[in-house]
Amino acid sequence: DVKVTQSSRYLVKRTGEKVFLECVQDMDHENMFWYRQDPGLGLRLIYFSYDVKMKEKGDIPEGYSVSREKKERFSLILESASTNQTSMYLCASKWAGVGDTQYFGPGTRLTVL
Amino acid sequence: DQQVKQNSPSLSVQEGRISILNCDYTNSMFDYFLWYKKYPAEGPTFLISISSIKDKNEDGRFTVFLNKSAKHLSLHIVPSQPGDSAVYFCAASPSGGTSYGKLTFGQGTILTVHP
Q1: What integer pLDDT is reported at residue A4 of this predicted model?
Q2: Could you give the CA distance from residue A93 to residue A35 in angstroms, rounded to a whole number?
Q3: What is the DSSP string of B43-81?
Q4: pLDDT at position B99, please?
């Protein structure tokens, strides 16, 4: 059974703080993804990684960075949090094969005050 | 530029009836489509998928139809149950080695099934 875990379910931070969101998967998946979910906008891809230390920008990478030092862990970093980064953040992982589904973590609800 | 669109923000149906959720896409490179279900405070869970070489895929109460010429897909749930109440997202992906299985999601449709 695939398991994707995220370090926090709820997080409250102040404007300007550096924020780390951690994601860990236990299925040896090559590919990992970070999304944010906002009402009326669906899920939007921030960054993804297809291998250790490899990363690519998604559709909305501005204001974010990522780190993948180990295969099972993918971190999303908000260098200087802003109020418009208040959102639900979802991590996902999948095998490298074409057509394989992505498995999601439970999400982190981040509020930036 | 919204490449995957779910034009109905919400849908309300009676228990036992059919639920039909719709999704349109614009990118001709998409050839693999998925539906995810999401309950509040949980991550999305995979429901059903379809490849562009097919026009229908069935899994129990869930059937996905794909009309490539219209760039349209739909999810049918028959019969609908109260436990199906959730947000449904359609997603699309291009195949090919450099896509890495990236998904483009629609905005979501909130389905409410009344007992």
Answers
A1: 95
A2: 11
A3: --EEEEEEETT-SEEEETTEEEEEETTTTEEEEEESS--
A4: 62
**Per-domain boundaries in chain A:** 16-95
Mean pLDDT of chain B: 93
Using CA atoms, how far apart are residues A18 and B22, in angstroms rounded to an integer?
40
User: Does 2.60.40.10 match the CATH number of domain A16-95?
Assistant: yes
CB contact under 8 A, A96 and B101: yes
Share of chain A above pLDDT 70, in %: 96
Lowest mean pLDDT: which of A70-74, B37-41, B85-89? B37-41
Q: In angstroms, what CA-CA distances link B71 with A89, B20, B52? A: 29, 16, 10
Q: Which CATH number fits domain B4-97+104-114: 2.40.160.100, 3.30.300.30, 2.60.40.10, 3.30.70.1560?
A: 2.60.40.10
Signed CA dihedral, A2, B88, A111, A18: sign only: positive
Interface of A with B (CB under 8 A): 4, 9, 31, 33, 35, 40-45, 48, 50, 56, 58-59, 90, 92, 94, 96-107, 109
H-type alpha helices, chain A = none
